[in-house]
């Protein structure tokens, strides 16, 4: 075990304090041999007393240093604006200060993580409350009208349809929240298996084919019919459905939505492109945030969970999603799955 600077200094003091005593005893014994034994006993006693005195002084010095150290640590914990405890010493004291610095840094990181988690929970609860408040208020209004106009079948039918739309909106919000929570918690392991990508894309398209036809929009599929991807079919279909729904929400009658896929030796790519209104440049960096509603979206439906959910699903497959858009010309979402996800027949 190596000695620190202070321990070496202490040993040097002990040696320096005792080096003359044996020499003096030897000189006296040579001059007065009949008292040699006495001289050596006295020399031993003096040496022992010197060592004890120096040890007591050393221990008192160590106690003072520990008190000073405790005060430094206490001051550091109460006010950490300086960043770390400065220590110019060596050995155990330097190690102690280093460990204290490390411990406090870890505590700060944990406290910051807890603070961010609380802020996220607070914001999430606020967003959920805000999203539920609108359909609940609408349902209360519709219910009041239905009670007043119970005899008018056309009014009852009209507001029954509106009530159903609000209920569907609430159900969609709750279902998406549950899915996001399950993905965040890792409660649902992805059941990956080789899937035929064209069949999966067709399944996602069929979910919105009727809506697209009703709104006068065209959805086209393009890609190699033999492309195979290792994925969870249910969850990836969910992600693609959210991207298609987002495209339908931001396109007008006569616009087109193109879904393409291609595969190379190192990458599988899925592209969802539309000729709709596009995304405002200020929104591009926020569209994957939960509950984000663009100030430029106007009356566009949605609660701001579809794109974050799609992103979470893609990333759970170890993929990535990116977007580029131009106002008035449309938007392109590109999903990339690396070679670890590629399966060939």
Structure keywords:
345 residues; alpha+beta; five-stranded mixed β-sheet; two-stranded antiparallel ribbon; 7 strands; 14% strand; elongated
List strands and helices in order, with pairings.
Blueprint: H1 5-18, H2 20-31, H3 36-78, H4 92-148, H5 153-185, E1 193-196, H6 197-214, E2 218-223, E3 228-231, H7 233-249, E4 256-264, E5 267-274, H8 306-316, E6 320-326, E7 330-338
Parallel strand pairs: 2-4
Antiparallel strand pairs: 1-3, 4-5, 5-7, 6-7
Helix pairs in contact: 1-3, 2-3, 4-5, 5-8, 6-7, 7-8
Verbal overview:
By secondary structure, the chain is of the alpha+beta class. It has helices spanning 5-18, 20-31, 36-78, 92-148, 153-185, 197-214, 233-249, 306-316; strands at 193-196, 218-223, 228-231, 256-264, 267-274, 320-326, 330-338. A five-stranded mixed sheet has the order 2-4-5-7-6, with helices on one face. It has a two-stranded antiparallel ribbon with strand order 1-3. α1 (5-18) packs antiparallel against α3. The chain is elongated and about 130 Å long.
């Amino acid at each position: 075990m190596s000695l620190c600077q202070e321990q070496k200094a202490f040993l040097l003091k002990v040696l320096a304090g005792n080096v003359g005593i044996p020499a003096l005893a030897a000189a006296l014994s040579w001059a007065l041999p009949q008292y040699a034994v006495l001289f050596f006993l006295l020399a031993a006693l003096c040496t022992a007393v010197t060592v004890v005195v120096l040890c007591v002084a050393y221990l008192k010095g160590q106690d003072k240093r520990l008190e000073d150290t405790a005060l430094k640590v206490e001051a550091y914990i109460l006010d950490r604006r300086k960043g770390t405890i400065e220590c110019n010493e060596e050995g155990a004291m330097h190690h102690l200060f280093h460990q204290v610095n490390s411990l406090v840094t870890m505590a700060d990181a944990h406290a910051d993580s807890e603070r961010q988690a609380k802020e996220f929970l607070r914001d999430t609860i606020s967003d959920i409350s805000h999203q539920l408040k609108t359909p609940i208020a609408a349902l209360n209004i519709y219910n009041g009208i239905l009670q007043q106009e119970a005899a008018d079948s056309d009014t009852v039918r009209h507001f029954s349809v509106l009530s159903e739309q609000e209920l569907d909106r609430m159900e969609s919000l709750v279902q998406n929240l549950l899915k996001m929570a399950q993905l965040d918690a890792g409660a649902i392991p992805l059941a990956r298996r080789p899937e035929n990508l064209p069949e999966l894309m067709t399944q996602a398209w069929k979910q919105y084919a009727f809506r697209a036809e009703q709104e006068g929009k065209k959805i086209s599929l393009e890609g190699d019919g033999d492309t195979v991807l290792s994925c969870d079919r249910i969850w990836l279909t969910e992600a693609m459905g959210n991207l298609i729904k987002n495209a339908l929400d931001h396109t007008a009658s006569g616009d087109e939505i193109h879904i393409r896929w291609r595969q190379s030796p190192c990458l599988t790519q899925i592209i969802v492109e539309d000729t709709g209104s596009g995304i405002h440049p200020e929104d591009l960096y926020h569209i994957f945030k939960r509950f984000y509603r663009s100030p430029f979206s106007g009356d566009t439906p949605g609660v701001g969970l579809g794109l974050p959910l799609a992103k979470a699903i893609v990333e759970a497959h170890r993929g990535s999603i990116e977007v580029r858009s131009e106002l008035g010309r449309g938007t392109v979402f590109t999903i990339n799955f690396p070679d670890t996800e590629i399966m060939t027949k």
